[in-house]
Write a structure and sequence with these properties.
The protein is α+β, with helices and mostly antiparallel strands. Helix content is 29%, strand content 31%.
Length: 131
């Protein structure tokens, strides 16, 4: 009985002082969700999004010297479908400029995530092969 009387006195004191006591489990605040602005796709996935593709011009010097190979480019496709950034990952130096010049002219279909346009990060392999 003494415990019951003490609990009642405590509640009266809390209400008299205007202190609020949270009941139940504390509510965790949900962090605001950040909107995704860029997604990463494989080269094969991004290739399906190409709207128009300009083939690379084989550099004369590379052709004369019979230089062949693959140039790998890391690209960022903007929210409009145009290529915004190009960085050479690997390839023969004599072929790099031709690969970059070609891919810079490519256009992609606009990509979206959860109904919002997004940039796409991917890689492109440009193969230079003499016949």
């Amino acid at each position: 009985m003494k415990l019951h009387a003490f609990a009642g006195s405590l509640l009266l004191a809390v209400f008299a002082l205007g202190v609020s006591i949270p009941l139940g489990a504390p509510q965790a605040k949900r962090p605001a969700q950040k909107r995704v602005t860029r997604i990463r796709l494989t080269g094969a996935q991004a290739h399906k999004l190409i709207k128009s593709e300009v083939p690379p011009l084989y550099p004369n010097e590379a052709s004369r010297k019979r230089i062949q190979g693959t140039v790998r480019l890391h690209i960022i496709i903007g929210m409009t479908g145009l290529v915004n950034e190009i960085n050479v990952v690997s390839g023969k130096p004599q072929l790099e400029a031709a690969a970059v010049d070609a891919v810079r002219q490519w256009q992609y279909n606009v990509s979206s995530f959860q109904g919002h346009p997004v940039e796409v990060e991917t890689v492109v392999d440009i193969v230079f092969k003499l016949s």
